[in-house]
Amino acid sequence: MGFLQGVLVLVVIVAFDLKSALGSLKHRQSPSSRKPHSASASRVPDLSSQGFLSPFQKASQLPSLDYRKFAQDPLGLQEKQLLQGPVKPLDWKFPVVPEVQRELAVNFQLRKPVTPSSVAVQCSEDRVHVEVKKDLFSNGQLIQPSGLSMGGCAVVGEDSASGVLILEYALQDCNSVLMMTEDELVYTFAVTYTPVAFAGTPITRTEGAVVGIQCHYQRLHNVSSDALRPTWVPYASTEVAEDVLVFSMNLMLDDWSYQRPSNLYYLGDIINIEASVKVYNHVPLRVFVDRCVATQVPDVTSVPRYSFIENHGCLVDAKATASSSHFLPRTQEDKIRFQLEAFMFQGGSSPSIYITCTVKATLASAPSDALHKSCSFSNGWLAADGNHQVCACCDSTCGPEGRRDAPVGGVHWEGKASLGPVMVQGRQKTLTRLQ
């Protein structure tokens, strides 16, 4: 009897174990077990319908667990997709700097100066009387009496009403040269003008000149005289230009419509200069010329040098030399224009002039102030934008040098721009005979 009970219990256990194994196999082969959301469940052992492992299940029948893979990938595929979410493609590109418009052909003709009639001569029986206009070159620049002489003899008088300087000496004085021909006696003199630099500056706006004067006497006739017309010997004077904020300076035509195709000027001419800032991908800006220095070579530290805009936008040339140099009223926020009378360095070894300027830009919405202004002198200091009170400091100090102060309305940007060489010629001088 005991033996039969044992066999019966063994058969029941085998049947139960077989049923459990068949159920696990069906579960592995069912389609739902292959879905992504049940992937995490497949990593744990199969449970019986009562939720417990069979105590007689063999260890070899348990699904193997890859704990290293589980540690590396603790989240399932679905959880990863939920965490990452959709990724928006990048649409940013580097900004494209627009092409600079090609220069248009400009109908430009350089106006050559006309020889002025500014020296008059009267030859008497034993003396020569010479009158020289103070505006010797007919360019508005008055010569200094100390620079004028005739054969080493100085000016003896001045007619202020007529604006002339007077030299009068005996025919045998002032290193005169006597020549005799078959019919004439000829006394030759040389009236020399040596330009004098403006007080406190190394520049002059007049060319040196030598005017030949001759008094002709007929051996058997009366004394005659005539006026002479001086002409000129050439000289010279200079031009070059420059972030994504780009500062630049250009020479312009008289009507400011285009860049000037020639860099050649004559003494007494007006040089039109336009400073600008290009505002690629930027808010509107207002440009200022902070300071400018003229030199004979590109090195801004070389000597001689002439600072004609200083003190944060004060164009001091007009006050220092009584010139007509000035800023023009502003017509565009990103451009500022000014006119500079042509000049040259006295006794300079080079005919070239290089102009180097510090240019600033502020937000167009920011008001001008003592450190950001464009002031000209004409019986007082005047601002190009009409805010004249910001120019009150031009005769003193408008701010510490080297300090980069921002305007009242915000920040500013600063850069360098230059021109060079700009050629400024004098006028050719020739010797003219009296008949």
Description of the structure:
- It is found in: Secreted, Extracellular space, Extracellular matrix; Zona pellucida; Cell membrane.
- By secondary structure, this protein is mainly β.
- Among the domains are: 115-218, Immunoglobulin-like (Sandwich), CATH 2.60.40; 246-397 and 411-425, Immunoglobulin-like, CATH 2.60.40.4100.
- It is 11% helix and 31% strand.
- The radius of gyration is 47 Å and the shape is rod-shaped.
- It starts with a helix and ends in a 10-residue tail after the last strand.
- Residues 31-60, 221-243 and 429-435 have low confidence and may be disordered.
Strand order of the largest sheet: 12-23-20-14-15-16-21-22
Spans of 5+ residues with little confidence (pLDDT < 50)? 31-60, 221-243, 429-435
Please outline the major beta sheet: 8 strands, mixed
Which whole number gives the mean pLDDT? 74
Distance between the termini: 172 Å
Secondary structure: helix percent: 10-25%
Please identify the structural class as seen in this structure: mainly beta
Broad CATH class of the domain at 246-397 and 411-425: Mainly Beta
CATH topology of the domain at 246-397 and 411-425: Immunoglobulin-like
CATH homologous superfamily title of the domain at 246-397 and 411-425:
Zona pellucida, ZP-C domain
Q: Judging from the principal axes of the Cα atoms, what is the shape?
A: rod-shaped
In what range is the share of β-strand residues?
25-35%
